[in-house]
Amino acid sequence: MFRFLGIISLSLLVANCYKTYDGYKIVRVGIDSEADYMKILKLETQDLLEIFTEVRSGHMDVLIGPKSWLTCQYHFKTGGLKYKVGTDNVGKEVEEEHKRLLLKTPVAPGQFSYDTYHRIDTIYARLDALVAKHRNISELLELGETYEGRKIRAIRITSNVSSDATNNKPMIWLDGGIHAREWVVPATMMYIIDSILGEEERDKSDRMAALIDKYQIVIAPSINPDGYEYSHESERLWRKNRAPAGCRGNKENWFGGCFYSLCYGIDLNRNWETPFFGQVGVSDDPCSLVYPGKAPFDQKSTAVIKNYLEAKKDKMELFVTYHSYSQLFLTPFGYTHNLTEDHDHYVEVGKAVVNAIAARHGYNYTAMQGAQLYPVSGDSFDWAYTVLGVVDSYCFELRPDGDSWRVGFELPEDQILPTAEENVDGLLALIENIKYEIGEESDDSGGESNDTEDESDPS
Ligand SMILES: [Zn+2]
Questions:
Q1: Which one, out of 153, 216, 238, 330, has a CA that is 20 to 30 A from the CA of 18?
Q2: Domain stops at, among 97, 128, 149
Q3: Res 254 pLDDT > 70
Q4: Same domain, 422 and 327
Q5: What separation in angstroms does the CA of 255 have from each of 96, 246, 248, 258, 287?
Q6: Would the pLDDT of 452 be above 60?
Q7: Which DSSP string corresponds to 281-309?
Q8: Rounded to the nearest whole angstrom, what is the distance from the C-alpha of residue 409 to the centroid of ligand 1?
Q9: Is residue 248, in this structure, part of any structural domain at all?
Q10: 170 shares a domain with 89
Q11: Residue 148 sits in which domain range?
């Protein structure tokens, strides 16, 4: 009997171990209106499909399993939705990537490489090693813990880092990895860190030295490590965090359990406090890939970052969050089509950034207002703009471009390095175009007026 149970539990374990996505398709659906979008959210609530990408100009991609395919086709036709199959068997691409990564030799503790996607332990060990090596200009920050108890770590880089005076320098915040499956993002963040510290991009050492004299740069390479690890171990295309979210369709049974199933994960990039929280571009179904949670910052991962940044808001000159994919540079607002009063500035910054990126390897990114894709509420760069008052607040979507018919989150490993390189150039162009320098401007920046002592002191 026990042996029998043992066999069952072992086979369940194997079955649950790694989702194969065998026979799953990526299907592009035309979205011409709010009503079209709501139809997709409804099919998602019925567990017939998963949202694969945000809405792009006029369409979105969804992931459909083999059992739901006929039903989805029926709903698309009766709902008047145009659709086209992109990738026919996602499982094949997921399996191929999985095999390739297994063949890579692991790096030694504290080392890093840009020819594969590394796990969170490797990323954190690298941060430890970098801070130990560059003591005068870097320190490790533990911002807090995730739902599953992993650390959310950041590195703070500035010249003469141990001096308290550095806290008065203007601050740049960069984060990555809020969406678990966007693996090229933490890798790019690590390359940016390596470049600023002089481990990479050595021909830019003078520029980097000037940069860290002037600024304190805080970089959190992987702010959803629970989801990131889960996407490596269990479901490659997992997007959210791993906290229990609630019952499918919010339907509970008479005993306080779930009528259907308990769902996991909150979309952390819908969980920030912005106007129209929980109302635009989200679903109230806890199973949805765009479920924002019950209230802003009800997730530990977003709350710890909010607490850290709120305390620094008077010093914040630049906020950037990195995602993949689509090759975009997005500016506020994300939650409404209305233009901000800084729109002309964004057009100028956008040109500088996409030109700098293209100059490196010839890849074209598009600069646009976030909501031009489709308005969503609760995203972090809108929070930084509207609540913290950081005018220069942006979101990158890295490679590949949005027209790719591949599984875009599985960027081939030989593109990690060029993606990271072009984004060092994009970031430098961005920093050169910051609108309000702390201490020089005060009235319009949204931040409180600081006295002139706040000007950076590179000594
Ligand atoms: Zn994302």
A1: 153
A2: 97
A3: yes
A4: yes
A5: 44, 15, 15, 8, 20
A6: no
A7: S--S-TTSTT---SSTT-SHHHHHHHHHH
A8: 10
A9: no
A10: no
A11: 120-229+298-454
On whether both 72 and 205 belong to a single domain, the answer is no
Give the model confidence (pLDDT) of 11-32 as tens digits.
Answer: 444 445 789 999 999 999 999 9
Task: Measure 398 CA to ligand 1 centroid, in angstroms.
Answer: 10
pLDDT (mean) for 362-367: 97
Q: Measured between alpha carbons, how far apart are the two ends of the chain, in Å?
A: 73
Amino acid 406: pLDDT? 79
In a domain, 336, yes or no: yes
Mean pLDDT of 241-265: 94
Å from CA of 182 to ligand 1 middle: 7
* 261 falls within a domain: no
Domain of residue 62, CATH code: 3.30.70.340
Ligand 1 centroid to residue 3 C-alpha, Å? 44
* Ligand 1 centroid distance, CA of 361 (Å): 23
Q: What is the pLDDT of residue 402?
A: 83
Given 44, 50, 397, 410, which residue is catalytic? 397
- Structural domain tally of the chain? 2
User: Tokens 């003469």 label which residue?
Assistant: 160
Name the nearest CA neighbour of 235 among 14, 24, 17: 17
Query: Which tens digit of pLDDT belongs to each residue from 296-325?
Result: 999 999 999 999 999 999 999 999 999 999
Q: Kindly state whether residues 316 and 395 are assigned to the same domain.
A: yes
- Pair (351, 311) in one structural domain: yes
State the distance from the centre of ligand 1 to the C-alpha of 121, rounded, in angstroms. Answer: 22
Q: Which DSSP letter does residue 221 get?
A: S
pLDDT category at 4 given cuts 50, 70, 90 is very low
Specify whether 437 is catalytic.
no
Q: Residue type at 395?
A: C
Residue recorded with tokens 């086709």:
73
- For residue 456, what pLDDT is reported? 41
CB proximity list for 281: less than 8 A, separation 6 or greater: 37, 55, 270, 290, 335, 374, 375, 376, 377
**Residues 434-445: tens digit of each pLDDT:** 998 876 544 444
Instruction: For residue 260, give every residue at least 6 positions away whose Cβ sits within 8 Å of its Cβ, in sequence order, or none.
Output: 47, 247, 248, 249, 251
For ion ligand 1, residues whose CB falls within 5 Å:
179, 323
Q: Average pLDDT for residues 336-359, to the nearest whole number?
A: 98
- How far is the centre of ligand 1, averaged over its atoms, from the C-alpha of 55 (Å)? 12
- Cβ 238 vs Cβ 225: under 8 Å: no
Position 276 in a domain: no
Q: What percent of the chain has pLDDT over 70?
A: 92
